[in-house]
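Quick one: structure tokens for this chain, please?
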Amino acid sequence: RKKITGTCQFFYLQDTSMVARIQREEWQGAMDASHSAYLFDNFSFWSPKLRTVGFSCGDGWFDLIKSLSEKIAYLRPPPDFVVTDVKEKMGFLRISIEHASPDIERLALGAENASERICEYCGSSGSTKRKNLMLKTICLYHETLYQRSKTWPSA
């Protein structure tokens, strides 16, 4: 079976079982293992707890987190600098850091702000949408895909 990846296109799904199947295959509540492994293998500032539980956000934010990680590494953070949590909260990326310089804090805040315009599922241009009490930053394709469901799927 072919998985949906990359840039999304807008269309209406007539078959709601397709939504459930895509949901099961694509979004299991955490970033894909290969993306997580890349970040853990290439950057040393992740906390042991984060390495255990992983990133609690969708693959659409991988490039944003990778870019942030590269910028942090370029700044050569202090030895006690650590990223303790990376997750989706209220539709936006949230990054918890300890012992960061003001420059690194600005970079993390910039990534969090940028997540407000990037689909958490695929990385396309998106906006924050509300369904019941849940907020998600999603593209038009994913909004259409889940318009029939009662809640957003986990990323």
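The longest strand covers residues 82-89.
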